[in-house]
Amino acid sequence: MQWTSVLAIYLLFWVMSAFIVMPFGIRTHREAGEELIPGQADSAPSNFRPGRVAIRATVLAAVLCAIFYANYVNGWITASDINFMEPPEEIVKEQIWMREGGAD
Length: 104
Fold this sequence. Notes:
The structure is a single chain. By secondary structure, this protein is mainly α. It has one domain (3-77). The protein has four helices and no strands. Helix 1 crosses helix 3. The termini are far apart. The model has no long low-confidence stretch (mean pLDDT 90).
């Protein structure tokens, strides 16, 4: 796999990870006991720290990308393992056998 492919996959994992870790540790003004500014949404965060979200997303994305790359190298799970549209060959043979009167 080329390094540019690994980078693109890492960036995809990073964006996904950022959305996953973003709500952790966030508190609204009511939860923090602070006053709302007139016109402010009740759900607006009072302690949003984008740097902390970026660090958490970076770590999670690195772990996920490492697992993905290890799977790519070792072939633990392949596309044929998760192909649910085409049944395995053993099931197809059994269905043909049943249609030809094998159940009699």
